[in-house]
Amino acid sequence: MKSNATFFLDEGDLPFPQGSLKKRPQSKRITDLYRSIRAETERLAAPLSAEDQTIQSMPDASPTKWHRAHTTWFFETFILEPFLQGYSVFDPAFNYLFNSYYEAIGPRHPRPSRGLLSRPGMDRVADYRVHVDRAMECLLETADRPILDLIILGLNHEQQHQELLLTDIKHAFSRSPLFPIYKAAPSPPNVTLPPKIDWWPIKSGLYPIGHDASEKGFAFDNEMPRHTVFLEDYALADRPVSNGEYRAFMDDGGYERPEFWLSDGWAIVQAEHWDAPAYWRREGSAWQVFTLHGMQDVRDDEPVCHVSYFEAAAYALWAGCRLPREHEWEVAARRFHSDHEHTHSQHFHPASLTSSRQKAIRQDVWEWTASAYAPYPGYHAEAGALGEYNGKFMINQMVLRGRSCATPVGHDRITYRNFFPPQARWQFSGFRLAKDR
Amino acid sequence: MKSNATFFLDEGDLPFPQGSLKKRPQSKRITDLYRSIRAETERLAAPLSAEDQTIQSMPDASPTKWHRAHTTWFFETFILEPFLQGYSVFDPAFNYLFNSYYEAIGPRHPRPSRGLLSRPGMDRVADYRVHVDRAMECLLETADRPILDLIILGLNHEQQHQELLLTDIKHAFSRSPLFPIYKAAPSPPNVTLPPKIDWWPIKSGLYPIGHDASEKGFAFDNEMPRHTVFLEDYALADRPVSNGEYRAFMDDGGYERPEFWLSDGWAIVQAEHWDAPAYWRREGSAWQVFTLHGMQDVRDDEPVCHVSYFEAAAYALWAGCRLPREHEWEVAARRFHSDHEHTHSQHFHPASLTSSRQKAIRQDVWEWTASAYAPYPGYHAEAGALGEYNGKFMINQMVLRGRSCATPVGHDRITYRNFFPPQARWQFSGFRLAKDR
Amino acid sequence: MKSNATFFLDEGDLPFPQGSLKKRPQSKRITDLYRSIRAETERLAAPLSAEDQTIQSMPDASPTKWHRAHTTWFFETFILEPFLQGYSVFDPAFNYLFNSYYEAIGPRHPRPSRGLLSRPGMDRVADYRVHVDRAMECLLETADRPILDLIILGLNHEQQHQELLLTDIKHAFSRSPLFPIYKAAPSPPNVTLPPKIDWWPIKSGLYPIGHDASEKGFAFDNEMPRHTVFLEDYALADRPVSNGEYRAFMDDGGYERPEFWLSDGWAIVQAEHWDAPAYWRREGSAWQVFTLHGMQDVRDDEPVCHVSYFEAAAYALWAGCRLPREHEWEVAARRFHSDHEHTHSQHFHPASLTSSRQKAIRQDVWEWTASAYAPYPGYHAEAGALGEYNGKFMINQMVLRGRSCATPVGHDRITYRNFFPPQARWQFSGFRLAKDR
Amino acid sequence: MKSNATFFLDEGDLPFPQGSLKKRPQSKRITDLYRSIRAETERLAAPLSAEDQTIQSMPDASPTKWHRAHTTWFFETFILEPFLQGYSVFDPAFNYLFNSYYEAIGPRHPRPSRGLLSRPGMDRVADYRVHVDRAMECLLETADRPILDLIILGLNHEQQHQELLLTDIKHAFSRSPLFPIYKAAPSPPNVTLPPKIDWWPIKSGLYPIGHDASEKGFAFDNEMPRHTVFLEDYALADRPVSNGEYRAFMDDGGYERPEFWLSDGWAIVQAEHWDAPAYWRREGSAWQVFTLHGMQDVRDDEPVCHVSYFEAAAYALWAGCRLPREHEWEVAARRFHSDHEHTHSQHFHPASLTSSRQKAIRQDVWEWTASAYAPYPGYHAEAGALGEYNGKFMINQMVLRGRSCATPVGHDRITYRNFFPPQARWQFSGFRLAKDR
C-alpha cells in the first residue's frame, strides 16, 4: 500500500453518520472510527460459539477466531511495535500464529492448518483484542500522520476481514449436515420479478481510471495511480443478472454445453460436478440455497450469487453478451452512480433486485469483470512488509467491482478493486452484463 | 462381535476393586460399572476446552467431542433403540453425525470432516450423554442377558475410545506451535538405566491361543475361538526396548541404512523424512519429546514409544533379533505373567522400564508383533451391524499386544488383540524383541 | 534368497523334456536351460513393436523393453561382474536404468518413469542381451557351484519377469481405445459348464510346510525353511470359482452390498467404481473381457480372473465359505495333486475349467489365499543385495498359490509363494473356496 | 479463428523464398506451401526413433507421433471431410485419438494418456500423413476461398505444432539420465558479452494494436480486431536479458528472497526447489544446461531461456524495472523493428545476443509480457469447432511476444500473441525489460 498522499483523512473516511464528529480534531475522530470498526468485528463474531470460531473448512477460509486475532496482530505489528514506546507484546508466539502472508515479518503458521489451533481459545483472543485496543487508545491520543495513515489502513484491513469472517463461516456452516443458522432471517418481501435490463451507454473516448492521490479519502495502493484509458463504445447493464435469469441458462443446458465455457472452467464443471451456483441444492424440482439465515428457497428476484468467474463468463456468452472490463465498470459507475440504501444490516443473502433497482450500479453482490488483476501503469508496491499487501497477488486473479451485502458500510468505493481466482465461489460474487455497441 | 457365550458376567469384567460389589445382583453391579466408565470419559475430557474438543488433526484421529458423542450413540443405537420401549432419540441428526463405520446402520458423516463439526457444541454433547445415561439407568433396572452382554460390549467400546481420546488429542496438540499441556507432569523419578534384557524361553509344542468362550469374562470376538497352534522353540525379551537402546540404533545410522527396512517402510522414511520416533525433536545435540505433559527431555529408561511397525522391525533386524509373532507373545505372557502396578493414572508418557522390570510382560506401551491381523480359525463375524465391529478390518494391519499407559484400568487381557496399520505412530506403540533358539 | 543347499541341480530344474539332457555334465545342461529361457523371453517380446515395448501404463507395470534389459542386468550385475574375469560392462549407465529395487547396488531410475525411457531403444536392448549372453556362455563353460546356483536363480528370476511381461503389456493394451491383440486367439472350445464343486477333506493335525532344503530342485528363499504347522479340519474346493459362479454374485448385488466386503475393499469399490473383475466391460446386457487375444465374450466355464483379494474375500463370504490359508492350500495340493497339461502355450485367457477338471489343484489362475505374506519361522534373508530379493516385501501383501496361464512351463511348484497387495488386479489372479468342517 | 477477411493470400504468407512462385496461380502457390510445411514436420521428426516419438513426459507435452497425427487429423476433419467429395477417412478411430481439445467434434483420448498409445505406430502415422496429403493435393487442384483460408489455417496450425514438437521432445529427453542429443551442435562462436542494454523510448499517445483484417497476410483470430489503446510514456530494452545478467540475479540471492516474487511464484520456487532456469544444472561451481544438442556449458552471451513468468517478473523487480505490457511490446516493435537473420536452422539453443544485437526486437526467445491473455475489444470467437481454437484459453495465461529459435521460419508476426500459464518453463521463453519514463 502506498502511504504518502493516500490516507488523507476526511469525512469520506467515516462510514457512519458524521455530523457529530465534524468539529472534533482529526485524531479524536479516528479514535471513534477505530472503536466502531473494532466493535463491529466483535458484533459479527458474537453469534458464534467457541467451536464455531475454531473450525476451518478449506485452506482459503480462516476461522473466525483467527480473523479476530490477525486483525489485532496487524495493529500490534505495524503500528504499536514500531511507534508506541514501551509497548509490551501480548504474546510473542502470536507473531507466528497470526501473520497471514508477510514474508518480510518472518515464518508463519501454515494457512491450511489454521483450523488446528484450539489454542489460543476464544477468550484469550478477546483478551488480546483488549490489550491491543488499550495500547491503541494511548497511541491515538498523540498520533499524527503518517501513523494515522497506517491506522486508517489497519481499519480498512479489518473491514476486509469482517467480510471474510462472514464468507468463511458461511462456507464452514454449509459443510455441516445441520446447516446452522448464523442469524435469523428477516421476514422476506414478496418476490417481484425485476424489470428487463436497461443498458447504460458509454461513448468511446479517453477516460480517467483509478483513485487520484490528491483527492480526499482512503484508497488502497492498487487503485492508484490515476491514469488514462481509451475505451470503445459500449453499454453496461443497469443491474446484475438475477437468479431467475440464471435459471434460464441452467434450464437451457448451461452446465452441460461446453461451447459456453472457458476450457479451465469446463474442466472444473466436470471434475466438481457443478450444476448450479455454490450453496444451491436441488429439492425435488425446486432449488434451495444455503444462506447465513439457513436453508431457504431460491428467489428469482435476487441477484445470482456465489458463482465463479467461469460461470459468469459462460452465462454472458450464452446471453450473447460479455462481461465488462473493470475500466468500463468504473467509467459507467461514475456516470450513472447514485447511492442506495445499504441493505447488509438487514440480511446476508443478496438483496432483491427490485428493491434497489432504480438506485445504483453498486449492488449487493460483488461483480466479476473480464479484467485480470494487474498493476495500474505507474504502480509500485511500497518497500517493506506492507508492500506485500496487494502487489504480490497480481497474477491468476480476476477483478471484481462493487460491493456485497457483507461489505461493511462505508468500505466500498467506485475505484475499489476486489480480486479472486476465477474458480472462487465462496465470496458473495455475481456479475453484470456488458456489450459492444 | 459374538454375543453368545461371550459376555458372561463375572467379577472378571469389573476393572475396579470389586469386593464391595460381590454380593449385589449382577445388573446392579453392571450399573455401577456403567456409571464409573461413563464418568471416566468425562474425567478425561474435562481438561479440554470447547475449542480443544473440536479440532481434528488428521483423518485417523477424531475430536474429543466426537468420541464423547460416538460412544453415547453406540448405546443409543444398539441398546436403547431396540430394547428400551418408548425411548425417544435425542436428535435424529446424530445418527448421521456419530456413526463411525457401521454400513448396516446407514450413511454417515465423512471421517476426515469430523473436525468441521462445530455443532453440536461441547455442551450439547454433554446433554446428549445425560439423556442417554438416564435412559440406560432405566433399562439397567430390568435388563437381563443378552442385553447385559451388549452393555458390557458398549462399555468395552467406550474404554477403547478413552484411549483414542488421549492419543488423538496428543496428536492434535503436537501440531500446535504452542505445544499445549494436557495435564501437569508428576515429579519424575531419576533416570535409572534398565538392566540388560533377559530372555524368557519357550519350548516347541502345541499351545492354546485365544479366549475360551466357556471361561468367565469379556473378550472381543476377534480373540476367539480358542484354537491350537504349533510353535517352534523361541525366546521372548522380558521387557520392551528402551529409548536408550533405540538411540543406539539411531546413532548407528538406523534411519539412513535401507538394509534394515521393509521396502514400504523405507519409502516412508524417505518421503516423510523420519529420523526418530514420532513426537521427538532435536534440540541441539539432545532430543526432546512431546507428551501429554508438554515438551520434555527424552528419558533413556523409558520404553521407546510412538514408533511404527516399520521402525520396530528395522530395529529388530539391526539388533540381530526379530519381532515376536502374536502367538508367541501370548504363550509367553501366560507363562511369565505377573501383574504389575498400573501406572497410567500417574502419567501419560510410558512408565520407566526399571520401575516395573520385575513385574510383567505387559507394559506401558502397546507392542507390535510380527503377525498380520487375521481371523482366528473358526472365526465368524456376527450377522448385522455389530458384525462390522472387528471383522472388516482384518487386512493391512498388524497386531499389537499388551496395553499402554493410556489403556483404561481393567481393559487389558492376555488375549487382547489391538491392531493398526504398519505405518501408524500416533498410538502408544513400542515393541519387544524375540529370537529363535 | 538362500544360495547354500538350495540350488541343487537336478532334472527337477529343467522345464522341458529332459531325456536328451540326462547324460550331459551339469554345466552343459544349465547352458541349455540358460539358452532356452533367454530365448523364451525374446519369443514373448517378438509380437511387440518398438512403441509397444516402450510404454508403461502404471507404476506397478514395466515396459517390455525394461523387462528384457532388467533380466539381463541381473546376470551382468550378480554373476558376470563378480565372477567373469575381464568382463566388460556393456554400458555403465544401465546399472542406473535397469536396477529394479536393490538399494545395496545403488540409486536407480524411479519406477514410475520407466515409460519415459525411449533410449536405449529396442535394438540396443537386443544388443545388450547378446553381449551378456556371450559372456554367460564363456562363464558357463567353467562355472561350478555356487555360481551355478546363482545362474539358476537368475533364470528363475527371468521366468518371473516373463509372466510380468505378459501381465504388464495386457494392462497397457487394455488402456488403448484400439484394444490391440497380442496374439491371435485359438479357436475356442464350446462352453461346457463345469460340474459342481467337490470338496477335498483334510483332517486336523501337524503338517510340514515349505521347501525342504535337503531335497533336490530349486526354490526361492521365501519357501524355506520347511517347518511344521497345526491345522484344524478343513476342506478345499477342487477347482477355482468360475466366471459363471462369479456372475451369480454380481447378479445378487455383490458389488453394492457392503456386508460382504473388508472395509478397505469397500472403499476401493466405491472410489474406483468397481462393478466387475478388471478388464470386463458391459456390452448391452452381456459382458466382454479384454484378453491378450483382444476383446472377447466372457465365458462362464473359465475361472474368474483379474480379481483382487478384496473381491475374492467378498465372494467367499457371500458364498458362505472362506478363502483357504496358504498352509491349507499347500497341504491339500500335496495330497490331491496330479499334474495336468499346461495350457499356457495355447492361450492367454485362463483355460476352461472343464478341460482340466479332473487333473490338479494347480490351475490357470493364481489363487488368492487368506494368508498375509510373512517370513516362515526360521527365515533369514541373505546378507547383501540378493537378500533384498524377497524379504523386504513381507508387508501389506497377500500370498497367492498355484500358477497361471502366463506362468512359464516348469516355473511352478507346490511350495511356490506368489504375493501381491490385496487391491492388485492386473495379475492372472482368481481364487478357490475353503470351508471348516 | 475468424475466416472472413483473414486469410487473404499473398506473398506474405509464404515463409520461403518466393520469387519463383510469384507468377503462379494462388492455389498452386498454396500447394507448394502445403508441401513444404508438411515436409518440414517430417524433417523435424526424422532424427527421432519409434520409441522417442512415443513417450510423453508430462501432461502438457505430447509425443512426436501424436503431433504428426494430430496436425494431419486437423486437415482431415476440418477440410477433407466437409469439402472433398468421396473422401474416405483413413481410420475412424483416429478421430478419438487425435482430437486435441475440440469439444464440438466429440469425446477424445485423455491428454495425460497420449504416451500410452503405442498404436498406431510411427509407420502407420506416416501412412496416415501420406493418405491425407494425397487427398489434400486433389482438393488443392480445385479449391478456392474459403477452403483455401482453412488450408492456410491448417498450415499455421501445423507450424505451431512444429515448435511444440521440439519443446516437447526437449522436455522428454531432459528427463532421461542419458540426456540424448536431438541434433549435433554446430561449432559455437566465442562468447562475446552483449553491450549494455539500450532503451527504446516511446511517447504517450493513442496507438493501433493488432492485425488489421483488411491487410494482406494471415493472422489468428486472437490478433484481431485492430483497435486503439492509450499508452503512457515508456521505454523498452533493445534486447532480452542475457544468461550473464540473470546469473547476477541468482548470485544476489534471487531465488531465496521472497520480496521479488509474486506470491504464487514464491510458492512454486519453494515447492519445486527452483534455483535456476529449467534445464540448468550445477556442475561444481559452474552451470550446465540441457539443450537439443545435449548438455552444454551455460553461455553468458545468450538470452536467458526456459524461465517462467514468475522468474521474469522477479528479475524485473530486482533490476528496478518491469516487464512490458503486450501493447507496449507491439508498438515498440513496429517502430524499431528490422528483420534479422533467422537463426533456428543453425541451432536450437537461443542464439547469442551479440550476433543479432543490431538487428531486431524479435529474438530467439519468446518474451513474457505483463499482459494476461484476454480477448481484444470486439473479439468474437467463430461459431463451431474452430471457434475453440483460441478463445476458450483466455484465462490464467500470460501473453508472450516475438518468436523463438524453434519457431518455423515465416511463422512469426509483430501482432502474434503466444500464451502460456505463468509457471510454464518448457517453452523457449525469456523476457525483455521495460520501464516508465
From TrEMBL, chains A, B, C, D:
Q: Which domain of life is it from?
A: Bacteria
**Pathway this chain belongs to:** Amino-acid biosynthesis; ergothioneine biosynthesis
Q: Where is the DinB-like domain?
A: 36-163
Question: What GO terms in the biological process aspect are recorded for it?
Answer: ergothioneine biosynthetic process
Keywords, ordered alphabetically: Iron, Oxidoreductase
- Sulfatase-modifying factor enzyme-like domain: from which residue to which, for each copy? 202-352
NCBIfam families, alphabetized: egtB_TIGR03440 (TIGR03440)
Protein name per Swiss-Prot or TrEMBL: Ergothioneine biosynthesis protein EgtB
Source species: Beijerinckia indica subsp. indica (strain ATCC 9039 / DSM 1715 / NCIMB 8712)
Q: Which lineage is the organism of this entry classified under, starting from the top rank?
A: Bacteria, Pseudomonadati, Pseudomonadota, Alphaproteobacteria, Hyphomicrobiales
